[in-house]
Each structure stands twice: as structure tokens, then as C-alpha cells.
Amino acid sequence: MLNYTEKTRSILERTKQEKSYRELLTHYGLRATRQRLTVAAQIFDRTDPLIDAETLYEDVALCGNTMSLATIYNTLHHFAKVGLIRPVSCHAQKQLYATARNNSVFFHHTDQNGQAHKISMSAFTPNFKKLPTPPDGYVISNIDIVIHLKTKETKHECAHCKLFQAINNFSAHIKRI
């Protein structure tokens, strides 16, 4: 009986995953290039069903791979074109993609600094009593719900804004000294 070391196990596991991503890309009519396999691994191994190119670029770099942001955008475009992922509109500066091929629900929030934040609600299943009837020759392929949030008139409690406010207060204090 073979006694595999932990390193050998991880190599075997990675090889199995790469093979399944290769088969997935081939099934959708895409060539399984190194870049596409890397992006597929980053997209489909994550728990968050929403992704944007900049975050994906950072994740790829953190894993030790070098790839241009343009390649990331092109790969996402090709994946969306064949139906592996879906573009989701949310009126943000970044184009979001849903990695789950079913419906998606998420909150969208822009803080005081203009930074966009998304909060996935993947466990939530909306209850629709009656959907509009699509025009002749069309069917509803999926439904995306984006709930845009704004802060109440009370004090803003976003962690990013608290940090920004603390920096501003510190800068103002330094200027007074």
C-alpha cells in the first residue's frame, strides 16, 4: 500500500481539479489554455458567487501566477460568451459576473468614499407570486436581484468609512499641531 505524503496528495488533487476544469472548458468549446485554467480555478473554487476582474486579478497574483488584467477581462468575456458565467448589472463602476449559472441576489452599497461593496445573499430564494410574461419568442433565462443600499441619516457605521474618518481626523489633528 502506498503512503502518499501531504505534498503528493495536494499535487494529485490539483491534477484532478485541472483535469475537470480542462473538461469543463472543452465542453463549452473553449481551448484549455494555461490562463483559462488558472482563471477557472480561481472562479469556481471560491464560495462568493460574484466576481469582478480586479479582484480576480489580485487573487491570481496572490497565488503566484502572472497574468495581465487585460487577459483576465478577455477570459471573463469568453467565459460569459459561452455561458460559464453571467454578467450582472448593478450600476457600479465594476462589471460583476455571477459564477453560479442560476439566479443571483445581492446587496450593493457605495460608501462615502465611492467604494462599491457587494454582499451576496446566495442562501436567499425570492418568492415571486407573478412574473411578467415575456414577449413572444422569448423565455426568462434568469433573474438577478440587486438591492441598492444607502446609509440611514444616522451615523455611518461602515468599517471602510470609519477608517477613512479616523485618518481624516488624525490628519486634521496633525495640521493643528
Automatic annotation (TrEMBL):
UniProt xrefs under Gene3D superfamilies: Winged helix-like DNA-binding domain superfamily/Winged helix DNA-binding domain (1.10.10.10)
GO terms, molecular function: DNA-binding transcription factor activity; transcription cis-regulatory region binding; zinc ion binding
Pfam families hit by this protein: FUR
SUPFAM superfamilies: Winged helix' DNA-binding domain
GO biological process: negative regulation of DNA-templated transcription; regulation of secondary metabolite biosynthetic process
UniProt protein name: Ferric uptake regulation protein
Species annotation: Bartonella tamiae Th239
